[in-house]
Amino acid sequence: MTFDTIIRGGTIATAADTFSCDIGITGGTITALGTNLGDASEIVDASGKLVLPGGIDSHVHLSQPSGPGITMADDFESGTRAAAFGGNTMVLPFAMQQKGESLREVVKQYHAKADGNCYVDVSFHLIIADATDRVLGQELPALVEDGYTSFKVFMTYEGMALSDMEMLNVMSVARETGALVMVHAENYDAIRFLTDRLERAGHTAPRFHGTSRPIPVEREATHRAISLAELVDVPIMIVHVSNGEAMEEIRRAQQRGLKIYGETCPQYLVLTEKDMDGLNMEGARYVCSPPPRDEKSQKECWAGLEQHVFSLFSSDHCPFRYDDPQGKLNPKGRTSFRWVPNGIPGVETRLPILFSEGVKKGRISLNDFVAFTATNHAKTYGLYPRKGTIAIGSDADIAIWDPKKSVTFQDKTVKDRAGFTPWKGRTVKGWPTTVLLRGEVLVENDKLRAKPGSGQFLARKAGKAAEPLGRATLEFDPKRNFGAKLR
Ligand code: URP
Ligand code: ZN
Ligand code: ZN
Hints:
By secondary structure, this protein is of the alpha/beta class. Helix content is 29%, strand content 21%. The strands form 3 sheets. Strands 8, 9, 10, 11, 12, 13, 14, 15 and 16 form a 9-stranded parallel beta sheet that branches. Strands 3-2-7-17-18-19-20 form a 7-stranded mixed beta sheet. Helix 3 runs parallel beside helix 4 (164-177), helix 4 crosses helix 7 (215-232) and helix 7 (215-232) packs parallel to helix 8. The chain starts with a strand and ends in a 6-residue tail after the last helix. Residues 61, 184, 240, 288-289, 316, 318, 342-343 line the site of N-(aminocarbonyl)-beta-alanine.
């Protein structure tokens, strides 16, 4: 046999081109693109279908401790299984440090949860909640060396929010080590101030979650994060941007030549704050941070994609069950939105939503769809060209899409373990019916063909996206300091 597998007769799209040919796969790698490729042990018929790089979802929360009495609905097995059904071949979840913990120990714990249990490939970002001297000086440099080359920092959440000084310290380590910093930009004090006032006034229903985190809270933090990154001369990714004002902060920074990247998510294109306004506690299903906004913000987020201010479209999959004492309706959550766990499920639905709402409705091209959902994730996080494209030498991570297939999302049919979908009742057109990971069929005609453990852990090198501009940081600017040496 010439190849292990040939994918025959499809229309291939990458971030750059659309063309028709067959794909030859050997040993998990793409080894030929052409016609009349000869024989293979397995032929996958893709006629009438689109053949795209497998999706990479670089913002996914799995098996994270989520506060006293709260349990995240998905572990690595169920979360990566849902990811595979949704056309993904790789996810990047977080290894989350809590105050007082060693980051190295945290990474070991997440490996114990993930290794041997994943359906798609995984790599970890690190969440830094305790920026101690030991973490900054020893653990982070060693972990970057070992392939954990991106950190998330929070400007909000009890026990997680970093001060500006801590953010600067983390950014500075990122600059030294070549890691990329992801920033959750919402002003913690402003949210606490508003939450206290809302609760005192008896406004505790889920919809007040949105009122407690209005756009200025996100815009200010976005501006501050960008300013801090500029001081240190380090690229950053502003994650889950929900509105045009925060997006414009990113655009302005980009226009000034800074390496500031932006990510948005399905909830900011499709949901609004009205979804949090259900009878009784129904709105808790949609509580996530930043909150979904209004139709104007939706349009602005679409513009952010169309105009490439955003380079990433991720799910921010963060699944909690709804009617469950360890989920959205935990006993304290019933008393105030403050205690409703933040986050919504979406790792399976991310790609079909963007395909249907974006490509099918003519808002973005098929090539941009590939860029926003696969190629740019690989480029941003040091995985390209092994991942995120269809090219000779790349891993044969491929999603075969039926562009005509309609699916209506239902709580019972979505594959994660949240038990509900925020997109219930919505119909999408276009579905990834067959998915291959490193040449092996994971999902075929919507049926699972793989076992947990088919996904591998990948260490990552620091990527180009994280390289500093090389500008003199302000304290060493010779123009200001009469010729002091550059760092
Ligand atoms: O509400 C959200 N987004 N929950 C997940 C954690 C985070 O901030 O990304
Ligand atoms: Zn976040
Ligand atoms: Zn998140």
